[in-house]
Amino acid sequence: MQESKTGRKDYKELIAVVATLLFVAAGFLASASGLSLIWFLPLSLAFVVFALLAVDKLLLFVVFMVPLSVQISFFSEKAPFDLSLPTEPLLALMLFIVLFKLIVTREFSPAILKHPVSVILLLYLIWTFVTSFTSGMPLVSFKALFYRLWFIASFYLLAAQIFLKKGNFENYIMAYSLGFAIVIVYFLIKAGGEGVLNQKMAHSACYPFYKDHTSFGAAQAFCIPTLLVMFFDRSRTRLFRITSFSLFLLFAVALIFSYSRAAWVSLIAAFAISIVLSLRIPKQALVFLSA
Asked: Which residues pair with 94 in a beta bridge?
């Protein structure tokens, strides 16, 4: 019995060695023909396996890279199409993974799939698909459809599934904030070189990660309240809370020097609403005041 197991083990090792030698030989032949990209094949396959086995970690990596993504047009104005690198190719890969888990393995919670928001999004995608055939520019319409497909698959469907596990929402926000922090440091250094009080420079100091200070400030305004709330979450580790508060301070400083007035007003309005909610005013009174 022991000899049989040893024989099978040796047989598998022999197959692995032969396969490796064949790949190396194919790699040298391909390189001689100018096809050096074949050397990236094992890395690509390993990445696909990682994506299938740890799609939640892949999503966190994508979220971390979102603020750091750069448009192809930044590198080449002659590019035939525009794409955010590296996030959108990764989102396209995740779309196929989500479809595989949705159709083949059926890992998604029925509560998410039957949720009214999911149903409305499905109807929206079906309608977009139908109207793409009658569009004046069908290729552009189908391109927009695919964009929406991989954004919804990753940032709604997959994210909702991952958020079912307690604590993953905070990790999601933290991953995005840490990636954004790199952009903020870049912004502050670039703006500081021209003077942080230079409003005109602040409008473009976030480029190429953000096209202008308005979207840059809006992204910060979304994160600031959440980071502050996570700091007061005593169920989290001390390191997590200190990191949250440090990011909060960094984001607050960058928001001030971004000179995005719309983001300032939005945060003030959010703070006012949070005070109203904390006072626990009866729903009827809120409806009356809103009217």
From this structure: none
